[in-house]
Amino acid sequence: MAFKGTIVTEGQGLGIVVARGEDATYKYPAKYRTARLSIKTRFIIRRLRRLGISVLNPQQLKALAKINMVIFDTEYTDKEIADTIRRLQLVKKIPCKFLVSQTQADRLQAEFIQARITSADNMVKLTPMNLVDAVEDAQFITGANQSNMLKVIKTLQEAGHYVLWVSDGKYLMPAMQIADCLW
């Protein structure tokens, strides 16, 4: 799905038009249109837009500073996952979790000897405190589906975690439900 201002630099894609003209534009609520944003907030919004992230509610930017866990629901290659772990987890000290297949988890565990694999199906059977511990200990989560990940996210929030959910949009409805539960 592409939005106004989307820039594609390479590759191939297929798009389906879902709305045109006036129906295709998002109307910002008046309180956000007229809000005076600080220079720092505008700078952050511009940087996020360069990364392809749209900020609909600038007041929510403060929540980004509280993020203490990132869960990736994307089809990354082993190399992309390894690079993300090195840059975000090892350098920035923000724990990263990846939803992957069992095969990919096994391959990655060979590279990251200390990395732990856990099954989402097994996690949701745990008590809330044990579930939080299981997610904190795991690097790779296998067998994830919409219902078990919604439960995981809600349990993490109740335990005081601020989670950033990164999705490639392949499974749009689950990603939107999780985003709704995060904010």
Please explain how this structure is put together:
This protein has 183 residues and is of the alpha/beta class. The protein has two domains: 1-55, no CATH class; 66-182, Rossmann fold. It contains nine helices and five strands, in the order H-H-H-E-H-E-H-E-H-H-E-H-E-H. It has helices spanning 30-33, 39-50, 61-64, 78-91, 102-111, 120-123, 128-137, 146-158, 172-182; strands at 69-73, 96-99, 117-119, 140-142, 163-167. Helix 8 (146-158) packs parallel to helix 9 (172-182).
Question: What is this entry, summarized?
Answer:
Helix content is 45%, strand content 11%. It is built from nine helices and five strands; from the N terminus they run αααβαβαβααβαβα. The two termini are 22 Å apart.
Mean pLDDT score, rounded? 77
Overall number of domains: 2
CATH class of the largest domain: Alpha Beta
What is the tally of beta strands? 5
| Contiguous runs where pLDDT drops below 50 for at least 5 residues | 30-34
Principal-axes geometry comes out as globular
Helix content: 40-55%
Order of helices and strands: HHHEHEHEHHEHEH
Give the name of the CATH superfamily of the largest domain: HAD superfamily/HAD-like
Major sheet: size, sense and barrel closure? 5 strands, parallel
The largest sheet has its strands arranged as 3-4-2-1-5
> Over all CA atoms, what is the radius of gyration?
18 Å
Beta-strand residue fraction? 5-15%
Helix and strand composition category:
alpha/beta
Distance between the termini: 22 Å
- Helix count equals 9
CATH architecture of the largest domain: 3-Layer(aba) Sandwich
Query: What fold name goes in the CATH topology slot of the largest domain?
Result: Rossmann fold
